[in-house]
Amino acid sequence: MTITNPDNAVKAPASSALSVTDLEVVYNVRGIPREVLRGVSFHIAPGEAYGLVGESGCGKSTTAYAALRYLPRNGRIVGGTVSVDGQDVTAMSNERLREFRARDASMVYQDPALAMNPTLRVGRQLIESFTLLGQSKTDAEKSALDALRKVRIADPERVMDRFPFQLSGGMQQRVVIAMALACDPKLLVLDEPTTGLDATVEAEVLDLVRVLRQESDAAVLLIAHNLGIIRSLCDRVGVMYAGRIVEEGPSAEVFDSPQHPYTVGLLRALPRRGVRKTERALATIPGLLPLIGSPLPTCVFLDRCAIASELCHTTAPPLVAIGDGTGRFSRCHHVDRIGEIQETPVSVDIAMLNTSAKGADVLELTHVSKTFHQRNLAIPALVDVDLSLGEGETLGIVGESGSGKSTLAKTLLGIEAADEGGSVSLDGHFVAPLTTGRSADEKRSMQMIFQNPDSALNRSWTVRRILMRSVEKLTGIKGDEANTRVEALAAHLRLTPRHLDLKPRQLSGGLKQRVAIARAFAGDPRIVVCDEPTSALDVSVQAAILNLLADLQSEKKTSYVFISHDMGVVRYLADRIAVMYLGRIQELGPTDAVFNGPNHPYTEALLSAIPNVDGEERVRIRLDGEIPSPANPPSGCVFHPRCPRAMPGVCEVSEPPLREVEPGHLMRCHIPVEQLVEMQRTPTQG
Amino acid sequence: MSRYLLRRLGSAVITLWLLATIVFVVVSVLPSNVGRQILGPFAPQEQVDALNHRLGFDRPIIIQYLQSMRRVFTLNFGESYTSGAPVNDVIFPALWRSGKLALLAFIMTIPVSILAGIIAARRQDKLSDRAIVNLGLATSSIPEFVSAAVLLSIFCVHWKLGKAFANPPDGATIVQQLQYLWVPALAMAITYFGYLARMTRAGVISAQHSDYARTATMKGMSSSQVMRRHIMRNALAPTITVISVQIGYLFGGIIGVERVFNYSGLGSTMLIAVGKRDIPVLQGAVLLVGIIYMFSTLAADLLIAALNPRVRLEVSK
Ligand SMILES: Nc1ncnc2c1ncn2[C@@H]1O[C@H](COP(=O)(O)OP(=O)(O)O)[C@@H](O)[C@H]1O
Ligand code: SF4
Ligand code: SF4
Ligand SMILES: [Mg+2]
Prior knowledge:
CATH architecture of the largest domain in chain A: 3-Layer(aba) Sandwich
CATH superfamily of the largest domain in chain B: MetI-like
Largest interface: A-B, 32 and 23 residues
Bound molecules: adenosine-5'-diphosphate, iron/sulfur cluster, magnesium ion
Number of domains of chain A: 4
Strand content of chain B: under 5%
CATH class of the largest domain in chain B: Mainly Alpha
Shape of chain A: globular
Structural class of chain B: mainly alpha
Number of strands of chain A: 24
Oligomer: heterodimer
Helix content of chain A: 25-40%
């Protein structure tokens, strides 16, 4: 069998800023070179923005680093070329490469807090970018100040004088971007530049990138797992799978009518267009991304493809142009059969989910506050929270980081004691503020799932032992009976008996999260608090976990408190949503009501922050400034310094009460609801 | 800043008090008749009783304890039971001698080990790295009295380049003293080389993998510029901690080397005091080591604070 080289379909345009052709990269793992990139080709024109999407591990970052020749020590380019502005990057001498990085290319990546040297002042690090270009010290200082102004930093002199850790995440990322733009690069690579930032900060950084794109002629390579970001920012997108680009085209077209089975799978796994758990389960892509170095002689997606044919097993699909030469390509033999791909069947009992939301209250918080004390400073992290949670209900909790979401979770679980005067009750009776004071049965009733499953799983134990221990501890059942229960539990969570004898580190992120969920469910809890349980997972794994949670809920009538920053996910799973800001509930209501409005001005800003993959964008409402310190909350309405709708003379004077504006829909705002309806129909320009 | 220092000093005083108390308790529970021990088995009982009375051993334990604490906090440890000389005249000269030896060992080991650590990190997994790492492992796992004995037989006995009896005569010039001290100092240096080089290597490697090093490289800096301007500062903190911990260790823990070379430093002094149940000397020496240990960790913390603005700002609050 011969493998034809199909990459001649995309010809490098004469004038591309970045041109990657047939790029092959291997990583040496224990002495064996393993293929990661298996012939990647794409081209970005000057001023164009190109997005790369795909599951983690498919080779996006490797592509980006290879483009700047900054591969890890064990990585090597073994084939193909990368050229930036006509210069072959793979053939540069060290001296030339340095020059190239200084003048022609820049990179911004995840976690701006780590991207700067923690021991040097921001100014010094920024000035350095300019002195490396040959500027004198004084010129470099002027340029640095200009650069900070360019990234919309209000008080550049002051920022220059700070250390990185004294800046907020958004500011840090601005400074990093300022450094990257110092040389006016021909190529700007952004690898997950906003992952880990709050939604509002993320939106702010993305706005900045959008503006800067208009001011500069740099080609942008953007990697982001949030497809909405790619859609709103990129002209074209490449979908990557197992080291190949399997589909390419203008972003709106690719996301609206995907032409490769993998792209179809990715998009169906997303909770989008306001879909709810009561409507349908999310689609998942069966199987796993092949390991690096696996032999994939024909189609890289073969193992997971629902419409694979005989041909797919014998012949590698060429990259074929789709339509009438509008720049759309798919690497699939059966583009014409894309429509045949079925949604994965699911087993959620939708009728049960529909009715269960109206169960009796299992949990009730009344006047719950939590004040932390730090060096004789009182920090109210939670202020007078009243909440109830029905049997089988999911309450979504959203808000920027620092708004008190996790404190709320910890307080109701009894990890932190609520202040005097507040109470937590479970099934109608009060429980002690701390777990130590709660009965075994009460503890069993409330469990938690974390973002990082590792924190809940003992690394040196097998899955069986972890689950045994939870069953024994929570239910008191011992020995063989416990073992039977563990096996039943595992089967329920679709963990095979083989998984039971593995240790956590031998499991993928999704499987680990399953084990963590199994652990939480070991004692048939009444309430499970989920703190960002899927935000570290890929969309298709996320879909599987969300389906699982919905499934367990429909069957066991478990109630969830579901904390997430992803509005799509919250919308999918939650029956009601609480919006928190500075320790206070600002809005609380049924999911539909919260998404349809009218909204509290803070919710309005949150909802407008993130572009979604369907391209429907709300008018951006920009929030000025940062979340104030809870130790020193603003007067009146705590949101007033940032509120675009604040009414001077009223809002900074008195704090509005949490009022019911329609049945079950509460808001903490002075503006009468009729007026909010009016305002939000004709939104202010942000 | 001053508040931080005060806090640190406060905790140092408490630690010293605890240390002194432990020494006191250990010494008091040992069944021994100090007077008899000093005067020997043939001294008349009256003399023994009189001595015990003079030393305060017939008083209630609480009074003995308070006396002992007074000695500690006035840094006046009384007189040696064996020689009758003031304890301070015994321990401070010993401290001075140990200090000289330790300083020399440090001067010999620090630059070499840090350099070796950096070279190893920059040539990670290459031959030179493996060589340095394995050498470091080997040297730090050989007890110092063994390397001391080996060096002694090579340099002092075989080649006669150093002195087997390391106490320099009174009035020796610095150069002469060096002749006496370099072999025992080398024995200590060899032991610390392993720790320091490996610590430095680990620090540099992790800083090399850091995002800020990547940022600096992407700015177009050469790898040696990145190393000088961005990596060293961050990478050395763990090394500094190790050095400071070892200062205390050097003073207290070099007994083996001192014994091999018959050097009358603090370590030997303690050892002899234990053998002879010379409690005041033992107490004084132990506390001196404790004090040095505490000052060296404090100095290390301040140095780390100076290198790390986050700690610095925290400290200066
Ligand atoms: N230094 C390395 N050594 C070995 N394997 C690596 C290394 N870096 C990344 N990989 C592997 O290469 C594959 C592609 O990784 P990466 O380019 O980071 O993908 P992405 O950015 O799409 O998540 C993954 O399987 C990853 O585990
Ligand atoms: S080529 Fe075949 S296996 Fe590959 S994606 Fe297309 S249909 Fe599926
Ligand atoms: S009360 Fe005022 S400041 Fe607060 S949200 Fe409403 S309009 Fe904004
Ligand atoms: Mg990546």
